[in-house]
Task: inverse folding
């Protein structure tokens, strides 16, 4: 089967909730990375055959063919189609995998996988509607689903607490991991590690180039003082991912496109895996998806040079590392979502931008990206830097 290649991967610097990016319409935020990607590569925009846009909260300004609206806001011609997909937090990671499948099959040759989310302007859950049935609110979980799983709702917060208990992580362990995320992100920023992957967003005439969520002065005591999300639990806002505004994009092509457009790839996609499991504990599936992906690729965790595991909640990457026997020094080497933010539908391509550039900067070969997703799903993508 033909290979799929990554030619370039970019992202915006994250914006804090109601921060510097909050004044930008989500379609315009998405357009920034579409334009930045095409401009950086120098490819003819008419060569782009599709845009696959990840977005979780498809409501309000992110509704009504959001991906297509991003095209209209960008420099791409109106002839470029787009589709908006939702695989929860893995939406744009799935966009990469769909794009790779398209170019590997030869159906298309040049596809942009992207994601955007303005969590300030379109808050989480605003796309969920409820109605009253005999005085009781009825939402996405039907009575039959609730009866099957013994749960009236599937809670990511509850799932994070379950993982912490199951894998034996106390609050101090989680808080120490959170502190390390801030330290690594701050160090990466000061060293210029994000310089190549970030495209500027012009805000009030000035380029936004630094992730707003990083707390270079964070302390264990400060993190430990943040109120727990539930009584008797271990999860707080400080050891969970930050609400974030941002966008990101990856250009995926096949060998035919490399030759036709004179492109130089920066990575090859080695394996694409998606699995699903328990929707109640929900966030544990990356552990088992990684097992499958490594088997498929004929690799061991020792063969992987760097891993990006989304820090939705601190117990997730910690449980993942424990389960697969990962080296903590290779995990989220430039910090993760606890410091940098988790812009939901944009996080998949955001993490890929960080992973591929971190591999190349270090002269390393294999990278693995995974994240937990609503409904007990997980994507894993393994790449080889070129």
Result:
């Amino acid at each position: 089967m033909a290979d799929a290649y990554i030619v370039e991967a970019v992202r915006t610097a994250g914006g804090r909730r109601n921060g510097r990016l909050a004044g930008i319409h989500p379609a315009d935020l998405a357009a920034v990375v579409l334009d930045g990607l095409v401009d950086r590569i120098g490819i003819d925009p008419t060569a782009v055959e599709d845009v696959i846009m990840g977005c979780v909260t498809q409501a309000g300004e992110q509704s009504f063919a959001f991906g297509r609206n991003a095209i209209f806001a960008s420099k791409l011609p109106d002839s470029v189609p787009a589709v908006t997909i939702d695989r929860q937090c893995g939406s744009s990671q799935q966009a990469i995998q769909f794009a790779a499948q398209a170019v590997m099959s030869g159906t298309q040759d040049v596809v942009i996988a992207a994601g955007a989310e303005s969590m300030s302007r379109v808050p989480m859950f605003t796309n969920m509607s409820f109605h009253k049935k005999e005085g009781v609110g009825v939402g996405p979980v039907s009575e039959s689903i609730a009866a099957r799983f013994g749960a009236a709702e599937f809670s990511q917060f509850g799932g994070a607490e379950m993982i912490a208990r199951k894998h034996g992580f106390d609050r101090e362990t989680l808080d120490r991991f959170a502190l390390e995320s801030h330290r690594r992100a701050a160090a990466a920023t000061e060293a210029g590690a994000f310089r190549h992957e970030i495209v500027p967003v012009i805000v009030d005439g000035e380029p936004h180039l630094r992730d707003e969520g990083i707390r270079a002065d964070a302390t264990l005591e400060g993190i430990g003082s943040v109120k727990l999300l539930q009584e008797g639990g271990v999860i707080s806002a400080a050891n969970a991912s930050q609400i974030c505004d941002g966008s990101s994009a990856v250009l995926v092509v096949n060998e035919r496109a490399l030759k036709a457009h004179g492109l130089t790839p920066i990575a090859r996609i080695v394996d694409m895996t998606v699995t699903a499991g328990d929707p109640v504990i929900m966030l544990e599936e990356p552990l088992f998806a990684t097992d499958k992906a490594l088997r498929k690729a004929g690799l061991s965790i020792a063969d992987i040079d760097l891993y990006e595991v989304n820090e939705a909640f601190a117990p997730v990457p910690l449980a993942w590392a424990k389960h697969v026997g990962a080296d903590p020094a290779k995990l989220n080497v430039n910090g993760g979502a606890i410091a940098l933010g988790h812009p939901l539908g944009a996080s998949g391509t955001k993490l890929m931008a960080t992973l591929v550039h971190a591999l190349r900067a270090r002269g390393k070969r294999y990278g693995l990206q995974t994240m937990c997703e609503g409904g007990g799903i997980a994507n894993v993508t393994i790449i080889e830097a070129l």
About this structure: The two ends are 19 Å apart (CA to CA).
